[in-house]
């Protein structure tokens, strides 16, 4: 039953009188429900309900749609809307004004913030030039690089002689486009949506019609902000393709009057490349938004304060510039820290002391969020948790993103809903509008530890819930068609998850799940009858098969092929089921994986087997940047963002044992390496030092020396094969060679200065005469270090065009170099003659940039890491490598990969705060599979997942 609308008192003011009259109009139309009204108006029920709530004046487009759906006088209501809008504006102008903050915090700059938007002058001019040089431009940058602010507060104020429309795609990009464009003609978007959905030239025709009264030289500039939402929020691939086709057709027509600018997150670059026209745009009309220079950062810090009559202490300026310099995605954090510092100003001065009170660039966001959250009551906190989890779109090979939430998805009848939403909005953690809610910026997702913990607590469960939410929306959109209900594995997963989940279902979701369960119960008897008939048919086919085998040898081979194909299909499905079940039913998942691999030894079944038998190192409080095995393979070292290096015993148990934590490190540890003799550990630290540790007894560590690299952060570290040379690489591109014959007194032998930016990775050839380095400057460089005191550069490989190179590794014979880059590829190079290397092959398969690369000890396998996966490649044929295995255990970016010295296991680490040790030998996997199984698969479970296959459990009962 629908909840009654909140009563209004028409005497309370003009806005409430307006809302009361809208409700009367609906009553005259027969009081249609808002769901019915939404069908007529082509706006969401939440938007139409909010229009008549009296809380704020709806947009003109929503008003026109509401009135038209109720059969009212559109012209009269439009005049009334304009009069009321002017009246409300006067009330705002005459109201007492609080002093306006000069910084916007986590929010993006809008067009009205242009007077306090600084630091991007040259980039704005570059984008504007591109917009009027070509008709379709892509502005690409990392989350937090400032794309939205650049477009709205930088670009749009410079466009004064053209019409401008701004939109975000959301879950229905074509509908959002129609709603945004409808404002040009103040008409209902209903007809436009219908036209855009079926006719590729509809957008082109509409734009020309809308601009018919404008000067001939004037165009429409359509800004599609947060373009990646067509991938994160729009589930319909067909609608994505149609939307891109509409933009492409309208901008390439001979008489086009449309110019399009899309702002897209860099980690969705590969998603865009699946569409040919987007490839053209990215190749020919792309503007990259990178980190700000130090002068630009000073403008961002000081100019808004000066405009507000404030000053910024010089020490604060220096501190902020140092902390923000070169950091990707730092701008919203910087703006929020400045806003909080301004709120703690001393008189008119922003001070370093006030900044420290905020918690700093990273801590300010977490402190604001924690303050707002802890101020709520316990029931309110529970509702807030549910809200935040719904406001995040879980990444698939990309980082998590914010998700726009339709109010209709929430249980707004909850007694705490209004209070929580209001408090979070006042803290500027969420933004609210007439029909939606969203997190103010993705920086909150990455820098509020509590939210990160919520997301990582049961990530697979959250995916199940998100799929349930989407399925509920589809079901209701189809008038609760029984055909849209859950069945089979999806229903089983949803039922199992809902029985134990801490996340509460809304009434809509609960109704969908209950209807699915009821439908399943009704179909079970019929399914059992069909199963009996199927078995009879299988028996008949078996008889026919026996007859056929006696007829001809050809029939034997044919049936064998059919059986093999059947087994392969069943095995593939079972492998998928095993992977999905692993987090909730590990014993069953392991046995299904083994059985699937026995049925058909395919890539899919191998991946499932490996995924269900990997080992996880837990309890790391921060992301893990690097891993390395000791030379005997018994100890694994992990380097973490929590300023520690940990040593783990990985010889026996499924869950490794922590041996020791390397003490006295300062700052993030980016690199870690064991010496060839296994007695020394090197750690690369953010405190500009490399430290050497005696680990003869891994439970009792002793620091041998601190190798200074001031004033730059050290990223890469490695030992020469003979253990006499240590190589380090740093933030500004320097690579240093150190004589460590005396481990307690290292001495610098040479500095290599070919790179122009960060050097992430270093590696030696087995003979120790050649060194390779990988850098941010898009190059991998090879150096002759036969004389380490007088090294020389042999070649600079443009290994990954215009993309950072993050990883390098030589093959065991030293004749091949592997590179890993931010262009989503790894490449193999013949370096037999290191001065003239030749490219052998490009390894494609990852959907995000690659960070790590490592050859197996026998040189036959290459491991790569990037996105949420690590992959194993058969490189026996270096010119034609093939993908062998995809490891999918991590839930966010995988940074580092390292083979165990015997090649039978691989260690991986990443942003999800875990490191995993995964066996790579299939025979070993199967042999040890049952060691950890306590409950044998039952005949009922076997029939559920392996129908038609004789019951043959892979593990004995215990």
At a glance:
The protein has 958 residues and is of the alpha+beta class.
Throw out a few tags for this protein:
Methylamine Dehydrogenase, Chain H; 434 Repressor (Amino-terminal Domain); 958 residues; Rossmann fold; alpha+beta; single chain
What does it look like?
- It is a single chain.
- The chain has a 5-stranded parallel beta sheet, sandwiched between helices. A 4-stranded antiparallel beta sheet has the order 13-40-39-38. A 4-stranded antiparallel beta sheet has the order 14-15-16-17, with no helix packed on it.
- Helix 17 packs across helix 18 (352-358).
- It has 958 residues and is an alpha+beta fold.
- Among the domains are: 1-97, Orthogonal Bundle (434 Repressor (Amino-terminal Domain)); 120-291, P-loop containing nucleotide triphosphate hydrolases (Rossmann fold, 3-Layer(aba) Sandwich), CATH 3.40.50; 754-913, Methylamine Dehydrogenase, Chain H, CATH 2.130.10.10.
- Helix content is 40%, strand content 22%.
- The chain is globular.
- It has 31 helices and 40 strands.
């Amino acid at each position: 039953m629908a909840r009654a609308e909140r009563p209004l008192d028409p005497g309370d003011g003009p806005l409430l009188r307006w809302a009361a009259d809208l409700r009367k109009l609906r009553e005259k139309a027969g009081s249609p429900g808002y769901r019915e009204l939404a069908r007529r108006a082509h706006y969401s029920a939440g938007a139409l309900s909010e229009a008549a709530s009296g809380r704020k004046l709806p947009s003109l487009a929503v008003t026109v749609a509401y009135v038209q759906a109720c059969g009212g006088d559109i012209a009269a209501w439009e005049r009334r809307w304009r009069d009321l809008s002017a009246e409300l504006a006067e009330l705002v102008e005459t109201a007492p004004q609080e002093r306006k903050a000069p910084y916007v915090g986590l929010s993006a700059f809008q067009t009205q913030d242009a007077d306090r938007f600084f630091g991007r002058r040259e980039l704005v001019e570059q984008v504007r030039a591109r917009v009027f040089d070509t008709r379709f431009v892509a502005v690409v940058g990392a989350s937090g690089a400032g794309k939205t602010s650049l477009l709205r507060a930088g670009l749009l104020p410079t466009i004064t002689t053209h019409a401008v429309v701004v939109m975000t795609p959301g879950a229905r990009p074509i509908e959002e486009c129609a709603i945004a464009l409808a404002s040009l003609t103040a008409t209902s978007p209903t007809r436009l949506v219908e036209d855009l959905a079926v006719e590729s030239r509809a957008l082109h025709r509409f734009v020309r019609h809308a601009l018919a009264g404008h000067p001939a030289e004037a165009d429409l500039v359509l800004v599609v902000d947060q373009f990646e939402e067509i991938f994160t929020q729009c589930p319909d691939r067909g609608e994505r393709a149609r939307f891109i086709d509409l933009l492409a057709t309208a901008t390439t027509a001979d008489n086009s009057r449309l110019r399009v600018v899309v702002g897209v997150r860099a980690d969705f670059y590969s998603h865009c490349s699946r569409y040919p026209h987007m490839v053209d745009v990215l190749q020919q009309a792309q503007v990259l938004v990178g980190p700000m220079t130090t002068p630009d950062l000073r403008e961002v810090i000081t100019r808004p304060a000066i405009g507000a009559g404030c000053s910024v202490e010089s020490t604060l300026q220096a501190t902020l510039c140092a902390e923000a310099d070169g950091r990707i995605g730092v701008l919203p954090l910087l703006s929020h820290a400045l806003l909080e510092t301004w709120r703690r100003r001393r008189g008119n001065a922003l001070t370093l002391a006030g900044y420290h009170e905020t918690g700093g660039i990273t801590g300010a966001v977490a402190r604001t969020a924690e303050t707002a959250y802890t101020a709520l009551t316990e029931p309110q906190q529970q509702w807030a948790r549910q809200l935040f989890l719904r406001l995040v779109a879980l990444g698939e090979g990309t980082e998590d993103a914010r998700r726009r939430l339709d109010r209709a998805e929430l249980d707004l009848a909850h007694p705490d809903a209004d209070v929580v939403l209001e408090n979070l909005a006042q803290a500027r953690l969420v933004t609210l509008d007439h029909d939606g809610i969203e997190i103010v910026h993705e920086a909150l997702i990455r820098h509020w530890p509590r939210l990160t913990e919520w997301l990582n607590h049961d990530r697979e469960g959250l995916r199940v819930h998100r799929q349930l939410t989407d399925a509920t929306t589809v079901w209701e959109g189809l008038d609760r068609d029984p055909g849209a209900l859950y069945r089979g594995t999806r229903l089983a997963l949803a039922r199992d998850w809902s029985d134990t989940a801490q996340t509460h279902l809304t009434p809509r979701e609960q109704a969908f799940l209950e209807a699915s369960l009821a439908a399943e119960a009704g179909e079970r008897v019929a399914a059992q009858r069909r199963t009996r008939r199927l078995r009879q048919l299988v028996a008949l086919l078996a008889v026919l098969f026996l007859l056929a085998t006696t007829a001809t040898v050809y029939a034997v081979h044919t049936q064998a092929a059919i059986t093999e194909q059947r087994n392969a299909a069943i095995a593939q499905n079972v492998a998928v089921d095993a992977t999905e079940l692993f987090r909730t039913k590990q014993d069953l998942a392991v046995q299904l994986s083994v059985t699937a691999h026995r049925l058909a030894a395919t890539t899919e079944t191998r991946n499932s087997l490996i995924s269900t038998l990997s080992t996880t190192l837990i309890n790391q409080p921060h992301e893990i940047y690097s891993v390395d095995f000791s030379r005997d393979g018994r100890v694994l070292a992990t380097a973490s963002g929590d300023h520690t290096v940990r040593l783990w015993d990985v010889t026996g148990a499924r869950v490794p044992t922590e041996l020791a934590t390397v003490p006295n490190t300062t700052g993030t540890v980016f690199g870690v390496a064991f010496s060839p003799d296994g007695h020394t550990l090197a750690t690369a630290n953010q405190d500009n030092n490399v430290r050497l540790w005696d680990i003869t007894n891994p439970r009792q560590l002793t620091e041998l020396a601190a190798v200074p690299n001031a004033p730059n952060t050290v990223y890469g570290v490695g030992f020469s094969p003979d253990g006499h040379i240590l190589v380090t690489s740093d933030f500004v591109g320097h690579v240093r060679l150190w004589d460590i014959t005396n481990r307690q007194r290292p001495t610098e032998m040479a500095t290599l200065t070919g790179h122009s930016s960060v050097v992430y990775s270093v590696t030696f050839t087995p003979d120790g005469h050649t060194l390779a380095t990988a850098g941010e400057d898009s190059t991998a460089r090879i150096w002759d270090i036969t004389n380490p005191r007088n090294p020389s550069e042999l070649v600079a490989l443009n290994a990954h065009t215009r993309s950072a190179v993050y990883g390098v590794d030589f093959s065991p014979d030293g004749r091949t170099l592997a590179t890993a880059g931010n262009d989503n590829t790894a490449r193999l190079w013949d370096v037999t003659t290191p001065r003239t290397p030749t490219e052998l092959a490009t390894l494609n398969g990852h959907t995000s940039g690659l960070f790590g690369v490592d050859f197996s000890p026998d040189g036959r396998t290459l491991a790569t890491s990037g996105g949420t996966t690590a992959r194993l490649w058969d490189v026996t044929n270096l010119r034609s490598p093939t993908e062998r295995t995809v490891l999918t255990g991590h839930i966010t970016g995988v940074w580092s990969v390292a083979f165990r010295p015997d090649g039978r296991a691989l260690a991986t680490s990443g942003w999800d705060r875990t490191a995993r040790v995964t066996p790579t030998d299939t025979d070993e996997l199967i042999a040890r599979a049952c060691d950890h199984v306590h409950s044998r698969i039952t005949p009922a479970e076997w029939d559920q997942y392996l129908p038609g296959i004789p019951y043959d459990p892979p593990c004995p009962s215990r």
